[in-house]
């Protein structure tokens, strides 16, 4: 399977990872190899097989509607690269 | 007096209880050994105070005549994938540099509640993505084991991988820097490094150990487990780590069995399956020979050997390399430079450019590679062909195991297709690296308990491991088969101290 | 009946096709996947758990009440409830989305097909509901507090939303407005959402396309997060006209996301990347499939209140006029109040008239909602009882009601203390009539001479002399007799 650099750039952009042209050149054959290798899965006849939904049979537990958390703004903001006036700060977003 | 750092969990626990030595003495011995082993690069953070506090608590409890906790006086190493309150937790990635969690993972908390202390945070493959520990952002761990590459003097030592991703854990245990350590296993990250370093390690059934507070790699595969010198120590430590956690929706609401009490190396009446598909192409003769030896030991322990078939085995790795990167691509989206960790904000960059710059600077190559693969297989137009197909193949792999359980109790296979390789030997070829997990990945996809125990040494004097895979929730049979092999293998080799 | 709303273009008439995706905040104490509070208006980032902030290793655990409320909502619109559903991740990067994905439901939603009936121009129309799924709300970005930075508040991050997706069955702004009002009414009856649009509890994504009547569907645009019924109607009108203009000028409509600006009443394109629609949905591996058992569904059903449609039908069967039935069922508070009035023994038809005129009139004057009414349903029932049994005349009842509004007193007591009881004492009334006739002999003569209209004058004089307390029916009878 061949992957072109345009595809690599599109995927990198979707994944929000900045890459240079040189990196895209390098990654294209690498990703192509890996994707080519995993494509052997197509050989498997999975016609009426259901995709796995739970690794081990288990039911989703639901919790009670009780407030048990919050009120810890300092802990929430403690690791922030930039926090001001009780907010996380990011470069200005224009919508 | 024996060197306290030669002791495992059970010996330390019993010695402290009996007063043969104090927990403080144990902690001091290991702390000193950790401090003297910097060249192995096994620890990212050393936390002697944590270890001393736990030791002092154990000694105080004993002096007061209290019943000691199950791990009282036992200092352990903590893989850096576990978030530890007030102690830097990075998953060996630059993107989490400086992150100090205001919370304690459930598994580490369970260990502290059981009386254990922490010697430090252990190096690993970045975000647990790797099989050699070479993807750590803070330098690879060097295995205490060395391989002579000949040369005139016969002493051209090739630095070896301790395996990955729990390579800091395996190296530290093998080098006697700690009696035991936590590991996590997504596709073999406990078992393969255990095999490479001559120690034991078990990945329990998916859901036994809470994932709460463990940096996520691939949520449907990640499982924590113990790594230690022998099977008994694994049983003791797993009892402390496991348990229901209401904060993890996939946690199993079951009591933790008394695995240590249930240990028995007698396999009479047990059937051990040998999956024929695990006899892979180009498997070294030594691996095959070890496998046969393992079969002979199992027979000697009273087990009946049956051949079984797991027909979809060869598709496990490609399925894994769709599912794990897909989940990872999403799990790692939160590392964006907004709430914690690294932020790279080039001049004039907008929000989305900040994300891209931060993630480019913060993630290592292998992490980026997997995020890219995962993003690709989930992207518009490819989802069904890749992700859905892989999830269906995963069902087939699980069905293979279910069918096998009709004729056997556990499976016995090699843990890895080779002994530890030299650092740098496989890093240029991702697929060659991925193939390391060929024997460990299928049971991960099926969520089954599986362990590696040392079986012997290869011609170069390097450890080789045997893997036992069990039915869901049947860790006891896995541990017992492991014990039977351990008793017969009589594995006592240890790396000569050179560091 | 199909609405005939049309846009007059240069090339002829255009039909508008509208579908609405409504995000309704589920009424719950805690968030969908964390134990942090959902209360409105807290200090920034004080209602944030480590899960909501997407700290490493944090995991979601779903809140039963949120699931329950979505199921009850589905039942209220007679939708299919899926006993097996699943949460998926919708992946995209934005500063208000800490995880880098929204936990939502794409492939297997909790609630499937249902429908909502609306009334526009006295005609009833059924609007299809494609699905209701449960998902997390995002945090909030503040842009105006710093010249070069935006601020992130995660208090809303992780609050449970129901996304209620309609079929593209609406054909006019009026229908869209009616749908939204009806949906809001149902949500408030069920108690699954407070419907408070000002606080953002309900927002609509408005899908609009235009076509020549009878043509295939045109390309649609999606105008995001419109937060009032009026704005939705405006946005549709503007967007439909814009699309007609574009097409008639030879242009093409591109499928895009747009923003509504309430200040100008217009919509504009959101600067969106081309990858905005590649959300890479996949099942959330942190969560298992959601399987509901019969006991859970039975409880959901049993706890449903009587809904507007059923209530309206009951009112009609109790002799209430269609107009009154409509007014009384539109808002859940009104219906609750009215039902309490009936429960306290009031006669339905009489009570409905009284509520629709007297009570609403008074509340309007006072600027109060029915839930703040100074008169309780039981007091009102007592008042209506006093009218029914002849103790109070209509005008006395009005007097008593005014006093009740002021003093919050019980009507019986007020009547007793102030002597407002109407009299049917024929002797007393006959005496007053005699006095009135004596004082107006000329008018008596005129009346007897054929001026029938003067009867009202005598009634008025008699009532006035009796300070309004005479039973008007008795006064009529006795006057007729006395005047011959
Ligand atoms: Mg939408
Ligand atoms: Zn939505």
TrEMBL record, chain A:
Gene3D superfamilies hit by this protein:
Glu-tRNAGln amidotransferase C subunit, N-terminal domain
Which InterPro entries does this one have? Asp/Glu-ADT_sf_sub_c, GatC
Question: Where is the signal peptide, in residue numbers?
Answer: none
Quick check: keyword Protein biosynthesis in the entry?
yes
Q: Which Pfam families match?
A: GatC
Report the domain of life of the source organism.
Bacteria
Q: What is its EC number?
A: 6.3.5.-
GO biological process annotations for this chain's record? glutaminyl-tRNAGln biosynthesis via transamidation; regulation of translational fidelity; translation
Q: What keywords sit in the KW lines?
A: ATP-binding, Ligase, Nucleotide-binding, Protein biosynthesis, Transferase
Reactions accelerated catalytically = L-aspartyl-tRNA(Asn) + L-glutamine + ATP + H2O = L-asparaginyl-tRNA(Asn) + L-glutamate + ADP + phosphate + 2 H(+); L-glutamyl-tRNA(Gln) + L-glutamine + ATP + H2O = L-glutaminyl-tRNA(Gln) + L-glutamate + ADP + phosphate + H(+)
Show the GO MF annotations.
asparaginyl-tRNA synthase (glutamine-hydrolyzing) activity; ATP binding; glutaminyl-tRNA synthase (glutamine-hydrolyzing) activity; transferase activity
HAMAP family per UniProt? GatC
What NCBIfam families does the record tag this protein with? gatC
Q: What does this protein do?
A: Allows the formation of correctly charged Asn-tRNA(Asn) or Gln-tRNA(Gln) through the transamidation of misacylated Asp-tRNA(Asn) or Glu-tRNA(Gln) in organisms which lack either or both of asparaginyl-tRNA or glutaminyl-tRNA synthetases. The reaction takes place in the presence of glutamine and ATP through an activated phospho-Asp-tRNA(Asn) or phospho-Glu-tRNA(Gln).
How does the record describe its quaternary structure?
Answer: Heterotrimer of A, B and C subunits.
Q: Which family does it belong to?
A: Belongs to the GatC family.
Name of the protein in question: Aspartyl/glutamyl-tRNA(Asn/Gln) amidotransferase subunit C
Species of the source: Hephaestia caeni
UniProtKB/TrEMBL annotation, chain B:
Give an example GO biological process.
translation
Instruction: Please give the SUPFAM superfamilies that the UniProt record associates with this protein.
Output: Amidase signature (AS) enzymes
* Record EC number: 6.3.5.7
- Report keywords, A-Z: ATP-binding, Ligase, Nucleotide-binding, Protein biosynthesis, Transferase
List the Gene Ontology MF annotations in alphabetical order.
ATP binding; glutaminyl-tRNA synthase (glutamine-hydrolyzing) activity; transferase activity
- Protein biosynthesis found in the keyword field: yes
The UniProt catalytic activity note for this protein reads: L-glutamyl-tRNA(Gln) + L-glutamine + ATP + H2O = L-glutaminyl-tRNA(Gln) + L-glutamate + ADP + phosphate + H(+)
Amidase domain span: 25-479
Q: Where is the active site?
A: 79, 165, 189
* One term under GO cellular component: glutamyl-tRNA(Gln) amidotransferase complex
Q: Its biological function?
A: Allows the formation of correctly charged Gln-tRNA(Gln) through the transamidation of misacylated Glu-tRNA(Gln) in organisms which lack glutaminyl-tRNA synthetase. The reaction takes place in the presence of glutamine and ATP through an activated gamma-phospho-Glu-tRNA(Gln).
PANTHER family assigned? GLUTAMYL-TRNA(GLN) AMIDOTRANSFERASE SUBUNIT A, TRANSAMIDASE
Family the entry assigns = Belongs to the amidase family. GatA subfamily.
How does the annotation summarize its subunit structure? Heterotrimer of A, B and C subunits.
Q: What is this protein called?
A: Glutamyl-tRNA(Gln) amidotransferase subunit A
Identify the species of origin. Hephaestia caeni
Gene name, Swiss-Prot/TrEMBL: gatA
TrEMBL record, chain C:
Q: Which UniProt keywords apply?
A: ATP-binding, Ligase, Nucleotide-binding, Protein biosynthesis, Transferase
Question: What reaction(s) does this enzyme catalyze?
Answer: L-aspartyl-tRNA(Asn) + L-glutamine + ATP + H2O = L-asparaginyl-tRNA(Asn) + L-glutamate + ADP + phosphate + 2 H(+); L-glutamyl-tRNA(Gln) + L-glutamine + ATP + H2O = L-glutaminyl-tRNA(Gln) + L-glutamate + ADP + phosphate + H(+)
**What are its E.C. numbers?**
6.3.5.-
Q: Which SMART domains match?
A: GatB_Yqey (SM00845)
**Asn/Gln amidotransferase domain boundaries:** 336-483
- Keyword Isomerase set for record: no
Question: Pfam families of this UniProt entry?
Answer: GatB_N, GatB_Yqey
Q: Which GO terms describe its biological process?
A: glutaminyl-tRNAGln biosynthesis via transamidation; translation
User: InterPro entries, from UniProt?
Assistant: Asn/Gln-tRNA_amidoTrfase_suB/E, Asn/Gln-tRNA_Trfase_suB/E_cat, Asn/Gln_amidotransferase, Asn/Gln_tRNA_amidoTrase-B-like, GatB, GatB_Yqey_C_2, Gln-tRNA_amidoTrfase_suB_CS, Gln_synth/guanido_kin_cat_dom
Query: What top-tier enzyme class does this entry carry?
Result: ligase
Q: Name one GO molecular function term.
A: asparaginyl-tRNA synthase (glutamine-hydrolyzing) activity
Q: Which family does it belong to?
A: Belongs to the GatB/GatE family. GatB subfamily.
Subunit architecture: Heterotrimer of A, B and C subunits.
Q: Which NCBIfam families match?
A: gatB (TIGR00133), PRK05477.1-2 (NF004012), PRK05477.1-4 (NF004014), PRK05477.1-5 (NF004015)
Cross-referenced PANTHER family: GLUTAMYL-TRNA GLN AMIDOTRANSFERASE SUBUNIT B MITOCHONDRIAL AND PROKARYOTIC PET112-RELATED, GLUTAMYL-TRNA(GLN) AMIDOTRANSFERASE SUBUNIT B, MITOCHONDRIAL
State the function annotated in the UniProt record: Allows the formation of correctly charged Asn-tRNA(Asn) or Gln-tRNA(Gln) through the transamidation of misacylated Asp-tRNA(Asn) or Glu-tRNA(Gln) in organisms which lack either or both of asparaginyl-tRNA or glutaminyl-tRNA synthetases. The reaction takes place in the presence of glutamine and ATP through an activated phospho-Asp-tRNA(Asn) or phospho-Glu-tRNA(Gln).
Name this polypeptide is given: Aspartyl/glutamyl-tRNA(Asn/Gln) amidotransferase subunit B
Q: What does UniProt list as this organism's lineage?
A: Bacteria, Pseudomonadati, Pseudomonadota, Alphaproteobacteria, Sphingomonadales
